[in-house]
Amino acid sequence: MLVFSFLVKRLFQSFLVLLSVAFIAFALFKFVGDPISNMVGQDTTLAEREKLAERLGLNDPFPVQFFNFIKGAAVGDFGLSYRHKVPVSQLIAERAPATLELAIISALLSVFVGIPMGVYTAIRRKGLLSRSFMTVSLVGISLPTFLIGILFIFLFGVILRWLPTFGRGEVVQIGFWTTGLLTWSGIKSLILPSVTLALFQMTLIMRLVRTEMLEVLTTDYIKFARARGLKENAVNFGHALKNTLIPVITIIGLQLGLVMAFAIITETVFQWPGMGMLFIQAIEEVDVPVMAAYLMMISLVFVAINLAVDILYAFVDPRLTIDGGSKHG
Amino acid sequence: MADRKMKSNSKWVQFFNGDLWYDFTRSPVAIVSFITTIGCLFLAASAQWVAPFDIFDLATLELMDADLPPPWADEYGEDKFFLGTDDQGRDIWSGILYGAQISVFVGFASVIISAIVGVALGLLAGYAGGRIDSFIMRVADIQLSFPAILIALLIDGVMRGLLPRELHDELAIYVLIFAISISGWVQYARTIRGSVMVEKHKEYVQAGQVIGLPSRIIAVKHILPNVLNPLFVIGTIHLATAIITEATLSFLGVGMSPTTPSLGTLIRIGNEYLLSGEWWITLFPGLALVILVLSVNIFGDWLRDALNPKLR
After folding, report:
1. In a mutagenesis test of the A interface, which of B37, B145, B191, B236 is the best target, namely the one with the most A β-carbons within 10 Å?
2. Which residues of A275-293 are buried (b: 16+ CB within 10 A; e: fewer)?
3. Of the partner residues A147, A286, A298, the one whose CB lies closest to the CB of residue B290
4. Class of domain A88-322
5. Bigger pLDDT: B111 or A148?
6. Average predicted confidence (pLDDT) for chain A
């Protein structure tokens, strides 16, 4: 029952977040730029403009307009892009596969490399390899993503000439989805951007796992497990790792949302034709519909991930639901 | 006046006899990162006097000097441009100095504004409690669930739409400062609020309430000075983040314009020439950014640990 009321509360909160983002997106339409002059030519008469404004509902009262905006947004209708003159939903659908492929591969990379590295550095704390991991990770955290990308381009693209440094390579069309994962050049093109994007999250996950694991390793039940004569591996992986991973899930979940956002930077560095580049171009050209749609979409992803993490957490750790469920720190 | 001087004197004496100074003198990491930080800040602040060329003075630029490599890496280089020149014949080293000045200025200004906004809201939320508190903290929660860079991008985009194009380039630096500081206040507010909630139940606050001081006075004059300690650490680490955010925005092309470049803009300009082998245009500003951010970060890390009583 407690779990249930906790979930309802979180669901309501998520809804509020989405509503406030929708309001911001709507305000963008309302106050930034003039939609009419973005849609018609110079020689349109005032009367025609007025008619268009009436037809688009721009003269309706504010709440009505907001309601209509939400109604459109709910079905993915954000109108025409000011610049490209095609529906925003179509633009986004074209670009989405590129970003999603990049983000998912990076997320997998950071989780499946970051966690083992964290565990290793915690178990062999004084080892040479652990220390070099830690030093490299400090640099990885301090370097801005775009600089890492540039260094990779310089090293692997300019000096060694091993890997392509821009674009997606050849892509294959499967239904509405374009994928670069099925061609050799597509996979080669994906390597540098995905590693660049993964690096920051990877170091973060590694450090987090290490800290948590070190803490767990000092607890009594671990000492007791050792005293019982359990094998080192059984203690480390059977007992310690399990408890380490509970708090790690939250952070990793939230980090995965960040991957989508940081893809903006990686996409710009590697000229990756995804949604991030679309968004940056939209900002440069004040293409409000695209900005609003991207904003709504990315917040939907964020909220969904947050919610999923919370639900997962509520089932993994029942203590959480008892003290009200505020654990973001 | 004399009295005051005595007091500040003894404060300095206290500082040099204190734990922090003792730890500092025994930590090579702290000393090196501190000196590097101060060195970077000094060079950036005095760019006008230190830089061998004035990169804003178009009259001194010569097309003959364009794209020269560093003299020590390539025989085509000229000795007076020891880090080479960019596509317009601007000296890279001078560009870095002026660029760092803008980056550091934006960084400091954003940190200060973030801190003021964050402290004010944190104090208000912590002391007032109730609805005001939950409203401010709810906004903070929402903002925290989005990455700072996205928020800064969005604010920049909105300002771009609101300001006419010519005006925007002129005001770019203020727009950047505004965007970065708005995206960074949450951390300050949360920390201050937490400390205020602890402080407000202490006896000196109750004493103030009993003798009938207005809440405003209690909050600002009595509680505030007692909760400012963590500010310095947050600020130092935030400085590194703010500089990175500025560089990232400028790199993405929504920050400083190429006519008044920051380090991020310089990297963006140079990035276009990287594939044709002119590596020095982008790598040296990049290196400068790394040195600046890394030293601030390492010093901030040390400071946080040194001031954390748990680790003593």
Report:
1. B145
2. bbbbbbbbbebbbbbbbbb
3. A147
4. mainly alpha
5. B111
6. 80
